[in-house]
């Protein structure tokens, strides 16, 4: 029998008193927040919603995919595709398409993983999440230090500092389906210099037939403290070679043992490469002011087979970026502020070719071949005012200009031969597009009791159209006249720490999104749709005693169409309908035990049912999973861990969809056992 919402919440509440796995409040600096202002601040006092994952949570989870980590963050669902592919929901439905990724800012040390206008839905695999120092998530529009894409939220991967123990560590891991992963880390501090090196490599034979991947990541960080000058320099790189499995088709095919391991697209693949480097120089000026100057470089390239389309074209894309961030910050008895400029120049490119003819409307040959020189420039200011002992006021303003210079390197117009009835591909002529945007945020928090805060925040966010939305046109559309998307958010929250035993955060939010870009019934990219988003996010972390801890991360939300946009394939009213792939309830709970030498944790993951298309006729029934993790010390410097995923062997789908009139699924893996050995040497 299906659980009622009341029973679901009751189960959640019971697990919460006995369920989470961030370290005890006494052991980790959980109140610290870096992402909001690019420097450490008291996260509890700040009037916004955020979550942080510390190194102990990262180590215990030992995530094979970002999905496993983000289950520990309320409001967030990283929907797992095949291999390392993913789609993001952050205070939103799961968003897809060329602009879906543009609604979230994915960053490493506050710098966007991909250039503005050139995002990718899978871009989290560019970051070395496996060996990060900390993860922070801001829910809802970001502060003024972030611009384009910080609409529904920010995911920021913070690199590990050189003084992080141990000095050297090596680990080896094995799991189901010929999964192996090795990692190494080194940290040293000598005088004013510190260095941190972290690298890992993994190979996976794949749960499905003819699927799997090889992946390597590296992070190198150098810190220098010269007294007046501080320097932080980071180089990060990643490489992915993946044999991709496509959707399996058929109603509840993921429950069919004869179908669930099939790969209908053994020819599919995805190869991706990324490199980022930056050097942040900080100097202490007079009267508590600090000047930060950060030049950076970014390089990305990707090639993959579009196995999800019948004609299976090959796409190659990439971009090179140079950027500069300059900021001046200061603090006094009651004021903290940061103001600055952000500059980014990117040369991006995309080429799509089809090896074999499919039809006159999807011919062999070059579909698109273009370059875009993109420039973005922004100025911002963010202010925190300690108005009294109990009142904190935050406000910020950002102005941003984006310019695209598009160069079509193939013939203008249709990619098809004359006489094609409805050519799928259209190449616009060379053009220039410019967008001016602004964002404003204002919030206040009140400390009504020691360590307990009530806050109210209003903020908006924006994104300029992605280059693929502007220049990768279809069905004869010659020009895409698109506006920037905008979102308005208001939220009321309660958060705090009680007696160093309970950390809690509760947020009620309502957001309205305007000028949403979509593909209409004529396959044209147009602006003008509206959506509404409202809900509740709850996080609890409770230290029952010295050994036992518990917690809960729960999201109850509704994401709906707020207009009758003429979506592709939809001929009826959808206003008020749920947006597809937007479960109304999801979350996780954890019950853990910890001693000086060992740790064990049981995790419950809940996913509610959700609709698969705008008319709300098709849906996925949802699922529940149990995961068990444990680690123990074997001898000095040597430890072992075991992870049992999908403990009850549930048959479920990581992602459900409807395409070309058919149910489609990415299949969830059955019970898996992962074993890991770790050896470490402490710093001398």
From TrEMBL:
Residues 46-154 form the TonB-dependent receptor plug domain. Its main location: membrane. GO terms for molecular function: siderophore uptake transmembrane transporter activity. It is a multi-pass membrane protein. Belongs to the TonB-dependent receptor family. Residues 1-23 form the signal peptide. Keywords: Cell outer membrane, Ion transport, Iron, Iron transport, Membrane, Receptor, Signal, TonB box, Transmembrane, Transmembrane beta strand, Transport. The keyword Plastid does not apply. GO terms for cellular component: cell outer membrane. The keyword Transcription regulation does not apply. PROSITE patterns: TONB_DEPENDENT_REC_3 (PS52016). Residues 176-647 form the TonB-dependent receptor-like beta-barrel domain. It is found in: Cell outer membrane. This is TonB-dependent receptor.
């Amino acid at each position: 029998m299906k659980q009622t919402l009341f029973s679901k919440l009751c189960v959640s509440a019971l697990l919460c008193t006995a369920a989470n796995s961030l370290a005890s409040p006494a052991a980790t600096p959980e109140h610290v927040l870096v992402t909001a202002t690019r420097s450490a601040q008291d996260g509890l006092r700040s009037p916004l919603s955020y979550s942080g994952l510390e190194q102990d949570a990262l180590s215990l989870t030992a995530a094979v995919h970002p999905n496993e980590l983000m289950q520990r963050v309320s409001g967030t669902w990283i929907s797992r595709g095949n291999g390392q592919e993913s789609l993001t929901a952050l205070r939103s439905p799961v968003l897809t398409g060329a602009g879906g990724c543009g609604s979230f800012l994915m960053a490493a040390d506050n710098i966007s993983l991909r250039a503005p206008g050139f995002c990718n839905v899978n871009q989290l695999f560019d970051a070395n999440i496996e060996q990060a120092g900390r993860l922070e998530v801001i829910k809802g529009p970001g502060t003024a230090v972030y611009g384009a894409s910080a609409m529904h939220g920010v995911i920021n991967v913070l690199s590990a500092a050189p003084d992080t123990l141990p000095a050297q560590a090596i680990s080896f891991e094995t799991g189901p389906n010929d999964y192996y992963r090795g990692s190494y880390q080194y940290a040293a501090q000598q005088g004013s210099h510190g260095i941190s090196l972290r690298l890992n490599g993994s190979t996976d034979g794949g749960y499905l037939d003819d699927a799997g991947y090889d992946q390597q990541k590296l992070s190198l960080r150098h810190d220098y403290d010269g007294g007046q000058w501080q320097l932080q320099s980071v180089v990060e790189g990643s490489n992915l070679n993946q044999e991709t499995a496509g959707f399996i088709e058929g109603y509840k095919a993921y429950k069919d043992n004869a179908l669930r391991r099939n790969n209908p697209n053994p020819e599919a693949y995805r190869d991706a490469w990324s490199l980022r480097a930056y050097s942040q120089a900080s100097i202490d000026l007079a009267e508590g002011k600090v000047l930060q100057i950060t030049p950076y470089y970014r390089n990305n390239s990707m090639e993959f087979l579009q196995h999800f389309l019948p004609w299976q074209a090959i796409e190659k894309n990439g971009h090179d970026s140079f950027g500069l961030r300059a900021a001046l910050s200061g603090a006094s008895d009651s004021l903290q502020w940061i103001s600055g400029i952000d500059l980014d120049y990117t040369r991006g490119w995309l080429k799509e070719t089809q090896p074999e003819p499919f039809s006159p409307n999807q011919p062999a040959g070059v579909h698109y071949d273009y370059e875009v020189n993109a420039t973005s420039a922004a100025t911002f200011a963010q202010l925190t005012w300690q108005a009294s002992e109990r009142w904190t006021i935050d406000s910020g303003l950002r102005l941003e200009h984006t310019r695209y210079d598009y160069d079509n390197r193939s013939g203008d117009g249709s990619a098809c031969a004359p006489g094609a009835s409805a050519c799928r591909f259209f190449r616009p002529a060379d053009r220039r597009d410019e967008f001016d945007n602004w964002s404003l945020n204002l919030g206040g928090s009140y400390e009504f009791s020691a360590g307990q805060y009530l806050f109210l925040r209003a903020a908006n966010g924006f994104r300029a159209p992605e280059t693929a939305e502007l220049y990768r046109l279809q069905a004869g559309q010659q020009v895409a006249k698109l506006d920037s998307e905008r979102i308005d958010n208001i939220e009321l929250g309660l958060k705090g720490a009680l007696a160093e035993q309970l950390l809690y955060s509760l947020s009620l939010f309502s957001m309205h999104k305007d000028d949403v870009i979509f593909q209409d019934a004529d396959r044209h990219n147009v602006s003008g749709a509206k959506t509404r988003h409202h809900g509740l996010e709850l996080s609890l972390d409770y230290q029952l005693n010295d050994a036992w801890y518990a917690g809960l991360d729960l999201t109850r939300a509704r994401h709906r169409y707020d207009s009758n946009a003429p979506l592709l394939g939809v001929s009826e009213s959808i206003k008020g309908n749920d947006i597809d792939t937007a479960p109304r309830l999801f979350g996780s709970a954890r019950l853990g035990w910890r001693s000086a030498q060992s740790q064990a944790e049981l995790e419950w993951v809940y996913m509610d049912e959700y609709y698969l298309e705008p008319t709300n006729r098709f849906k996925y029934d949802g699922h529940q999973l149990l995961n068990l993790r444990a680690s123990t010390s074997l001898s000095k410097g040597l430890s072992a861990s075991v992870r049992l995923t999908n403990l009850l062997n549930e048959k479920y789908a990581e992602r459900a969809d409807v395409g070309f009139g058919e149910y489609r699924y990415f299949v969830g893996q059955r019970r898996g056992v992962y074993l890991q050995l770790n050896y470490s040497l402490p710093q001398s």
